[in-house]
Amino acid sequence: MDILIRQVVTTENDREETYDRDIQTDVLNLGSATDCDIQLLGEGLAAVSAEIRQSGGRFRVARVANAPLKVNDKLVSKSDLSEGDIILLADNELRVIAAPTGFDLAFELRLPRVQDASAYENAFVTSLSQTRWSIRRFSWMFSLAVLLLAAIIPAVTLMLERDGSKIPEFVPSDALWTSGPLHSAHFQAIGDDCSSCHVEPFVQVRDQACTDCHSAIESHESLAVLEKHPADTFRCASCHREHNEPTTSLVITSDNLCTDCHTREQINADAEPPLSIAAAFTEKDHPAFEATLLKYSDSESSFKPWKTSISSAEVAEEKSNLLFPHQVHLDVEQVQMLDTGDALQCADCHTASSDGEHFEPITMEGSCITCHELAFDLENSERQLPHGKPEEVVFALEGYFLKSLASPNAQQSREPRRRRPDRNASDAACTGFDCALAQAASEAESQFTVKGCVSCHEISTFEDAPLNKRFQVKPVSLNTDYFPSARFDHNSHMTLKRPDSDQRLSGMDACESCHTAGESKQSSDVLMPAIDNCTQCHTSTFEHFSDIATAPLACTDCHSYHPSEPVHRAQLRNEP
Amino acid sequence: MSYVSIFAYKGGRYFWWALFLILASTVLYITQLGGVQPPNGGTWQGYVLGTVGALLIVWLAWLGVRKRRYANGSGTLQGWTSAHVYLGIALLFLASLHSALQLGWNVHTLAYILMVAVIFSGFFGLYKYTSIPALIARNRSGLSRSKLFAELYDLDQEAQSIAAKCLPEVDESVKSAIQRTSLGGGVRAQLFMRDKSTYLEPSDNNGLPTLKPNLDQQALVTMVTLRIPQAAKRMEAQNLQSLLRALVRRQAVIRQLRRDISLQGWLKVWLYIHIPLTLALIVSLIVHIVTTFVYW
Predict the structure, then answer these.
(1) Across the interface, do A139 and B145 touch by the CB < 8 Å criterion?
(2) What's the pLDDT tens digit per position in A565-574?
(3) Comparing C-alpha atoms, which of A539, A533, A486 is closest to residue A511?
(4) I want to staple A94 with a disulfide (CB 3.0 to 4.6 A). Which of A87, A106, A177, A368 is the partner?
């Protein structure tokens, strides 16, 4: 189109002058930019504010963006133009006039007398808010992305998976909701199936989720008291907190595990049996050690465990039915090794178990027989009595003497090479069946009551019973665990130094520094140390600045919350 | 109002608040050590730290809205900004202690990372707020931006009217240079002062003019300068001289404006990260809290 622009300028003396120019264009641009066909400045006018186009035979003005376009004093977004119409952009006026010959359209342009030149800024994009960047748009984008990736997609994935659909791994799932890694053993067992423990949303994991697998776990004995103290009721997860780091262990090692209850008088009072009050590992704040000892009941011919405080262990006696003075065996003047002549060492009889705490059972065959042979006839020392079967002993003796004294050439074979002080001359002289039985009876009585079995065992004698039932050896039971509810590592104590001495102890010296075996004359002596033995080196806290540096011990270094087997302490406690 | 004084607002009142908050949460954190559980968001101390942290996030976000709403108001603006900065720093400690730095590939760590990003984008903004206003003032040499634009407009008009009196090729060059002057524009152009100005350079041998880059308007200025000694008439030389004066002044104004646009951009660009991330943080905070209790 061919457009005539007739600019009307009012001079200082109020005369009007006109300047004509013609523009040939398809679209007539109005705006503040220099490259607009008509450059107009004013408030709210952008680089391009309005466009005039020809469509059909008509001309139409349309605003661009939000420019304040007025046609005939009305704000419009577009308007058809006819002669006499006045377009107003800010204070710039365009009046449509009759187009002279050769022109399609003509305008009379009046600019305001004072141009607002500062509005020239609108011709340019000078602020970030005018660019495509938008805080509001970014906010929506980021927020929706978070909502979608972290919440909505995982939730949908979860629902689809519950319905049995297979969702590819890369799709965000509820694995993103984990608050930390699972313990590796649990991860191996359940993988990323959250619902195997988190059964119900918004409900804390129930103990059953644990005990479904860990069915063999024993409850802590004192849990019954918690019925009276529901606020102190524990869930498995109170102590075993999953998704927590470090993940190496789910077991609490803090002393609070124990002391939270074992320091509270009220809980103690309501517990049956009463709780041991323990606040720390010191003589004052920890109960005296209680040893589980063995008691023999003659009427029932069996052993029962019972407990007593170590501090009263000197009074208490353990009944194992074995006669064994440690003192004698450790005295090199009295007992020596057969091969070397050296004194016996603890380890010669006490072999540590693989757990480092306990010892392999001591047996006649394993420990005693090397010295305590069961020969009864010096002439025939290879003939040994059977161990552990008193009746067999009698039969063995009878058989032996019958063969040697009642056989046809008995006299010859029994001719003593020299007289033995323990045999009567008549014994040796006689032969025959009766003589043999008499010899057997005499030897049996001697073994059971004078020199053999009786040196280690307690024997019950029933005078009226036949010989094979006359002597009963009381059963022997050696205590294998004095402190079943505590742990102790012998290995790490096999070398030690007590704070009151400069000497480093190892081997048997280390054993004897806690177990005073060298002074024990009775097998009923309880050789377990009391707490003061431990507290010389160990207390709950590391006392760096005291005279003696202590090796700190946590409750869990010795104790477990879950007993390895149910122990009915009430039945054990404080019986004689 | 000095921008630096937000640090010392009312004797650094909020500094002490923040310090108290940091110390209190550290003490609370330490009470977990040696406790039944390792430090974690799930202990009672963790819940307390988390609750305070979440409230602090919401409050700080609201402070951000509030201080903008009263941006031209009284001295409270300073107070809000001071509180926003100091308590934002305290939040960094608080949330770190809440998490016990147990980070992983999960929505909880997402919230933590978003929070850290918000706070560090805030540090960037704080740095810009303290360093840029002085640069803006020095660059504008006391003039407002609209005054500079008004001057640019006048110089454009002046240069064009003088050029109209010069040789047609010069007139065409000047008109094209003015029409093709680039100022501002996209984000990169604004921030890094990218100048895409071009102009029509007259041909040496009466051919068609060619479109050449006109970086910093220097090509145009050089072209006009070189024509002065070649002017055939005295009047022509005088016109070129006047034209040159207007163009050089115009060049200086454009430089000032370009730098002003850039400085103003840097003053605000961090908000395009800070605010959207804050909203994303609030969403992820809600996700964090809800998912914590979905799988309690």
Answers:
(1) no
(2) 655 444 444 4
(3) A533
(4) A87
pLDDT at residue A378 above 80? Answer: no
| Distant-in-sequence, close-in-space partners of A145: CB < 8 Å, separation ≥ 6 | B280
H/E stretch holding A180 = none
Query: What is the phi-psi region of residue A489: left when phi exceeds 0, alpha when psi lies from -120 to 50, beta otherwise?
Result: beta
**Under 8 Å between Cβ of A89 and A116:** no
Q: Is B161 left (phi over 0), alpha (psi -120 to 50) or beta?
A: alpha
Q: What's the CA angle centered on A153, arms A152 and A157, to 5 degrees?
A: 120
Structure tokens at A219: 């409850």
For residues A186 and A196, the answer to whether their CB atoms sit within 8 Å is no
Give residue-wise pLDDT tens across range A280-339: 888 888 888 888 888 888 888 787 777 777 665 556 678 888 889 999 999 989 888 888
Compute CA A296 distance to the chain's CA centroid, rounded to the nearest angstrom.
41
Question: What contacts A466, CB < 8 A, 6 or more positions away?
Answer: none
The residue behind tokens 């984000």 is: B187
Query: pLDDT per residue over B121-161, tens digit each?
Result: 999 999 998 889 889 999 988 888 889 999 999 999 999 99
Q: What is the residue-wise DSSP string for B107-144?
A: HHHHHHHHHHHHHHHHHHHHHHHHHHHHHHHHHHTT--
Q: Structure tokens of B115?
A: 């929070």
Tokens at A562, concatenated: 């879950």
CA–CA gap between residue A481 and residue A417 (Å, rounded): 51
CA distance A387 to chain B (A): 54
CA atoms within 13 A on the CB side of A399: 11
Residue type, A450: V
Cα(A409)–Cα(A426) distance, integer angstroms: 18
Task: Tell me which amino acid residue A58 is.
Answer: R
B152 interfaces chain A, CB cutoff of 8 Å: yes
Give residues with Cβ within 8 angstroms of A53, minimum separation 6.
A26, A27, A28, A59, A60, A62
Written as one string, the DSSP assignment of A51-78 is: EEEEETTEEEEEE-TT--EEETTEE-SE
Domains of chain A (ranges plus CATH)?
A: 2-130 (2.60.200.20), 295-361+480-572 (no CATH), 364-473 (no CATH)
The tokens for B105 are: 């590939």
Alpha helix (H) residue ranges in A40-180: 135-146, 153-162
CA distance A45 to A122: 6
Q: Rg (Cα) of chain B, in Å, rounded?
A: 29
- A110, A92 contact by CB (below 8 A): yes
Whether residues B265 and A256 touch (CB distance < 8 A) is answered with no
* Rounded-to-integer distance, Cα B183 and Cα B50, Å: 48
- Interatomic CA distance for residues A249 and A239, integer angstroms: 11
CB contact under 8 A, B295 and A198: yes
CB of B177 within 8 Å of a chain A CB? The answer is no
Mutate to test the interface with B, among A45, A176, A179 (most CBs of B within 10 A): A179
What is the Rg, in whole angstroms, of the alpha carbon atoms belonging to chain A? 53
Chain B residue numbers touching A133 (CB-CB < 8 A): 187, 272
B190 Cβ under 8 Å from any chain A Cβ? yes
Looking at chain B, which residue has its C-alpha nearest residue A36?
B179
Q: Is A201 on the interface with B (CB under 8 A)?
A: yes
| pLDDT tens figures, A321-334 | 888 999 999 998 98
> In chain A, which among 26-45 make CB contacts under 8 A with chain B?
34-35, 41
Nearest CA to A473 among A403, A386, A559?
A386
Predicted confidence (pLDDT) at residue A147 exceeds the cutoff of 90: yes
Question: Is the confidence metric ipTM above 0.90 for this complex?
Answer: no
Interface of A with B in 232-291 (CB under 8 A): 238-239, 241, 244-246, 252, 254-257, 260
Would you call B193 an interface residue with chain A, using a CB distance cutoff of 8 Å?
A: no
Q: How many CB atoms lie within 10 A of CB A464?
A: 6
